[in-house]
Amino acid sequence: MRLGGPSSGATPLAQILYSGLAGDVSVILRGLFSILVLLVLMSCGRGVTPSPGDRGPFDSYFQQFESFSVQNGRDTFGDDAITIAFAKLNGTEAGRCEWHFIKGRKVLIDPDKWEGLDEPSREALLFHELGHCLLHREHDSKEARIPDLRSAAEKDPRDGTTEFTGPKSLMNPTSVAGSVYLRNKGYYVKELFGKPL
């Protein structure tokens, strides 16, 4: 005799009903398990919004990035689940944006290189990496005549203009010098967020 099943003396109708019920329970359980797995996969990365303190020394830069985002018509406030952390990187790489299917987006900053940067260079570096992770921007190695914000008294002695030729974008694969970024921050922020210049 099988445990839980009709005895061998049961009518054929009882045996058919039992085998159908066992099959239905199996299908129902497999369906419930599939739904549970799907819900777990869909919830990965959601509801894990770091509090501002979780970004440590990067929080003020992140908050400023979000503020510039709104000012320039790009809402990145739904992207708070991004992680920003220190990590040792190879070679000359100072920062990196990583995308993981389950873990979400992460900006990694080399701590040794970070320590060697002034404040404008740190902001430019972090905005560059957030440009990859939140604005989906690719590298742009073009150079352009940039409207430098120096006063007329500081005109370039070579050509008498207040423009200079330099990186067109913060998305340049080599860093934009902090002094250049600071003097031309309005230009670089508008370019980063794709607002017409």
Tag the structure with descriptive keywords.
3-stranded mixed beta sheet; 197 residues; 13% strand; 5 strands; elongated; 6 helices; alpha+beta; two-stranded antiparallel ribbon
- Average pLDDT works out at 77
Rg from Cα: 28 Å
Which sequence of SSEs, written as H and E, runs from N to C?
A: HHEEEHHEEHH
Strand fraction: 5-15%
Low-confidence stretches: 43-53
Distance linking N and C termini: 83 Å
Q: Can you describe this structure?
A:
This protein is α+β, with helices and mostly antiparallel strands. The chain has helices at 12-43, 59-71, 111-115, 119-135, 178-183, 185-192; strands at residues 83-86, 95-100, 104-109, 143-147, 163-167. Helix content is 41%, strand content 13%. A hairpin with a 3-residue loop joins strand 2 (95-100) and strand 3.
Question: Layout of SSEs?
Answer:
Elements: H1 12-43, H2 59-71, E1 83-86, E2 95-100, E3 104-109, H3 111-115, H4 119-135, E4 143-147, E5 163-167, H5 178-183, H6 185-192
Parallel strand pairs: 1-3
Antiparallel strand pairs: 2-3, 4-5
Task: Offer a concise description of the structure.
Helices cover 41% and strands 13% of the residues. With 197 residues, the protein is of the alpha+beta class. The chain has a 3-stranded mixed beta sheet. A two-stranded antiparallel ribbon has the order 4-5.
